[in-house]
Every structure is written in C-alpha cells, then in structure tokens.
Amino acid sequence: MPKNRNTPSPLSRWRRRVLSRAVHRGWAWVQEAGAVTAQHPGRLRFGRIGTGTRLAFPQGTVFGEPWIELGDHCVIGEQVTLTAGLMPDLDLGADPILTLGDGVVLGRGSHVVADTTVTIGSDTYCGPYVYVTSTNHSYDDPHEPVGKQWPRMEPVVIGPGCWIGTGAVILPGARLGRNVVVAAGAVVRGAVPDHAVVAGAPARVVRSWDPEKGWQPPLRTPAPVPIPEGVTPEQLLAVADLADGGASRTDDGDAPRMDGDSSRVTG
C-alpha cells in the first residue's frame, strides 16, 4: 500500500508536540508577565488599584487611568476596555469618573466607557462582552452625520451584588439596584429596583422579589443546596466518584486529588 503523503512522520509529530508545548508555556509566561496588579501596574497609573485586583493580559483600550478607581480583589478579563473621558489626555478634575467596588468581575471583551460618572457596586459580576456606557449619540440635526453631533451623557449606577449576563448593554442614565439580574443580551435603560430580573430589548422586569410572597412569578427550579460546613474537597470528590460510577477516576485507578488550595484537581 502506498504511503499517504499527508501522514506526518513520527519525527514530525514529535517536533509539533515540542513546539506546541513551547508556545503554550511561552504564552502562559507572557500572560503572567503582562497582567496588571497594584504591585506591577506597568504603564497604567490608575487613581486606585486595590489589593488582589488583576487585569488579565492582553488588556483592551485603557485611558484616563487617573480617574479610574478599582476596588480590592477585582477580576478584569482579557481585552476589557476601561476608559474615563471622551479621549485620552484630558483633565477631568479632582473626582473619579469610573469606580469599581470590591470584588467586581468583568468578563472577557467587556467595555466600560465612562465619559461621565459610572459606578459599579461591590461583588457585581459581568459575563463576557458586556457593554456599559454613559454616552449615547444624538441625532437632533437631520442634516448632520450622527457621528459628528455632540453626544448626550448621563451617569450610570450599578448597585452591589448584580449579575450582568453575556452581551448585555447598560445605557446612559441606567440605575440598577442591589442584586439585580440582567439577562444575556438585554438592553437596560432607566431605573431597575432591587432584587429584580430584567430581560429583553428594551429590558423589562420579568421577575421580582416580594418580602411576603417571595419571587414573583415563582422560580421554576429548586433552590441550590449549600455544602454543609466541615465537608472537605476530598469528601466531595468521593461523592462525585460514587455518583458517576467511578468515571472520574484516573487511568491508574486512583481517585483524583485536590490540591490544598482547593482550586484545582490533579490526577
């Protein structure tokens, strides 16, 4: 049987594996070295960057850093844009323009554009590609291109504990209360009360919390059961192993183990 020219030789496969490992290791080093933290801010000089806060590499567009304040333990994903002011190198005064509270998470590719004040409360999580802006184009003059007309600006406030789904857009003037859920792809404007779920474009309230009746309309799924206190990662893995009939065991028959920091599983 003739040899298939498209089949790589063992030497070629070995070279490709070595090259692939080298590229991945190199990229991991670049990501670690390029990440921005309080200890290693690089070229960025934020008004404040809190303890434990990290901007993943590569960063998106970032300017107006002196008027951007980031709380403690924030997680800023790759290619996230953070801007204060209409353009770089403006003097925006003494007060911060863009403020993130403690524990804010911004998913990959998200944009927070703060031409006037934008405040995101503590422990608010944003999925990937969320767009938050305090500026909108105006189109008052029908004879002038929209992009050349002076934009309208309104402050944006997102309360603490919110969840903003993938691809959601938060428009100028939006005021979200505490623990608001914004569905993926929703377009939010105006005021949203505490403990509400909004969806659609434009977004509307589809579920809300009543102190006496609970969630209205009622939730369709049961509440998650919290893990009892004192349960170790090893015990959880053992339960999972029993549930799947041993499928989570490694090839050598040993159950996987969890490192002491409980953050990853090793074989």
UniProtKB/TrEMBL annotation:
CDD domains: LbH_MAT_like
Keyword Ribonucleoprotein: no
Highest taxon, organism lineage: Bacteria
Keywords (A to Z) from UniProt: Acyltransferase, Repeat, Transferase
Pfam families referenced in this protein's UniProt entry, alphabetically: Hexapep (PF00132)
Enzyme nomenclature, EC number: 2.3.1.-
MF-aspect GO terms: acyltransferase activity
Matching InterPro entries: Hexapep, Hexapep_transf_CS, Hexapeptide_acetyltransf, Trimer_LpxA-like_sf
Enzyme class: transferase
Transmembrane segments: none
Region called Disordered, residue ranges: 241-267
Keyword Transport: no
Compositionally skewed regions (Basic and acidic residues) per UniProt: 249-267
Protein family according to the UniProt entry: Belongs to the transferase hexapeptide repeat family.
Protein name as annotated: Acyltransferase
Species assigned in the record: Streptomyces salyersiae
Lineage, highest ranks first: Bacteria, Bacillati, Actinomycetota, Actinomycetes, Kitasatosporales
